[in-house]
Amino acid sequence: SLAYLAGIILGYWHLSKMVKAPGSPMAQRHADDLFFYCTLGVILGGSLGGSTIGVAPGARWIAAKVFDDRGMSSLSALHLGFQWLLDPDGDAGTDDAPHVVNCSWAIQGSLNKCSLEFADDLRALRAAGIAVVWAAGNNGPYSSTSYGPANSPGSFAVGSAGKTAATPTLTSSRGPSACTNGFYPSILAPG
Q1: At what angle do helices 119-127 and 75-86 cross, to 10 degrees?
Q2: Which helix (H) or strand (E) holds 102?
Q3: For the stretch 76-115, what's the b/e string if a residue is b when 16 or more beta carbons lie within 10 angstroms of its beta carbon?
Q4: Which ranges constitute the DSSP H helices of the chain?
Q5: What percent of the chain lies above the pLDDT cut of 90?
Q6: Closest Cα to residue 161, out of 181, 133, 131, 185?
Q7: Percentage with pLDDT > 70 across the chain
Q8: How many angstroms separate the CA atoms of 144 and 181, rounded?
Q9: Rounded to an integer, what distance in angstroms lies between the CA atom of residue 168 and that of residue 125?
Q10: Other Cβ atoms within 10 Å of 49 Cβ, number
Q11: Element (H or E) spanning 100, and its range?
Q12: What is the model's pLDDT at position 129?
């Protein structure tokens, strides 16, 4: 999978340079979309010529569009997105809810503040057996740089590991959590 990712990253870099050329038939957002879907393919994987590839073969991916094309959202759109995840097709008789939800966003102005805005949503997802994983943020190397709702009680925030799995990168946000005064992030992973 690392070879696939390296190829995708190099291809993205090259494509990003090409789209900046005058008269390019595509925009940077098209290159971004292509990169996203190629990376998603490596994660979800599948079979190719009898060989299984990807880090989570057989997994399915769904998305709740809660941000507009400018990257903006509202609290109500985010709440509706969480509610939709509990039953994406609206039929309680089907098992279509995700097992894991990835959130790589934060509430604007929540740096080192405790916001319980999504506490009810997170409780409902956990009660349904859905794990919610948050990106810890990129405000390191300083302490007390946790973000809400990733720092909420019961949240699971993932920071970026440095040279060792026990050391965060310089950019990874770190605790203590503004909500619990406990460890933040919950875990470090390569990134």
Answers
A1: 10
A2: strand 100-103
A3: eebeebbebbbeeeeeeeeeebbeebebebbbeebbbebb
A4: 2-19, 28-44, 75-86, 119-127
A5: 51
A6: 185
A7: 89
A8: 9
A9: 28
A10: 5
A11: strand 100-103
A12: 95
Q: How many residues does the chain have?
A: 191
Is the pLDDT at 2 greater than 60? The verdict is: no
Of the listed ranges 56-65, 86-95, 108-117, the least confidently predicted one is: 56-65
pTM (predicted TM-score): 0.76
Copy the structure tokens of residue 105.
């966003």
Which two structure tokens, joined as six digits, stand for 129?
């057996």
Token reading at 75: 């609290």
Contact 169, 184 (CB under 8 A): no
Contacts of 146 (CB under 8 A, 6+ apart): 111, 112, 136, 137, 157, 173, 174, 175, 176, 177, 178, 179, 184, 185
CA distance 48 to 41: 12
Burial 8-27 (b: 16+ CB within 10 A, else e): beeebeebeeeeeeeeeeee
